[in-house]
Structure formats: C-alpha cells, structure tokens
C-alpha cells in the first residue's frame, strides 16, 4: 500500500523555508498492518508546532521522517 506524505529528507535546512522547501511531498510504501494494529486510511493531516520543531531542528530526529501526526481518516 502507498500513501502521499510530507517528508523531511535533510537536516539543518536554511530559512526562509518558502525558498529552501525542507519538506517534499512524495509517495511512501507502507507495510501491511500486523497483529494488534489497525490501518487508518487518512484523508487529511494537519501540521502543528511539534511538526515545525522537526523542520527547524528544535527537536532533531533522524531523517527521512514523515511529518503530520493529526490525521483524519477511516479505520479499515
């Protein structure tokens, strides 16, 4: 299964982000859900302050990383 996602590929991206574009919209290949897991088919995702902290290195994390954790969708 695939999904479209906002992905951060690099660390320490210069500002302004409107020019450097630290997020890339791309297709991500997902594995099937396993025992005790559910698949949520997302229809929309919001980006909040914690996502911004991943982009501006306030909370450094390994890359690549998918940002956007506030998902609206359907459990399948």
From TrEMBL:
InterPro entries, sorted: ADH-like_N, GroES-like_sf
- UniProt-listed Pfam families: ADH_N
The segment(s) forming the Alcohol dehydrogenase-like N-terminal domain are 34-76
* Superkingdom per UniProt: Bacteria
Q: In its UniProt entry, what is this protein called?
A: Alcohol dehydrogenase GroES-like domain-containing protein
- State the organism of origin: Roseovarius lutimaris
């Amino acid at each position: 299964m695939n999904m479209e996602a906002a992905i951060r590929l690099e660390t320490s991206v210069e500002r302004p982000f409107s020019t450097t574009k630290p997020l890339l919209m791309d297709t991500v290949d997902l594995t099937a859900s396993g025992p005790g897991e559910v698949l949520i088919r997302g229809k929309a995702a919001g980006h909040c302050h914690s996502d911004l902290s991943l982009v501006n290195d306030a909370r450094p994390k390994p890359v690549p990383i998918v940002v956007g954790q506030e998902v609206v969708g359907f459990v399948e």
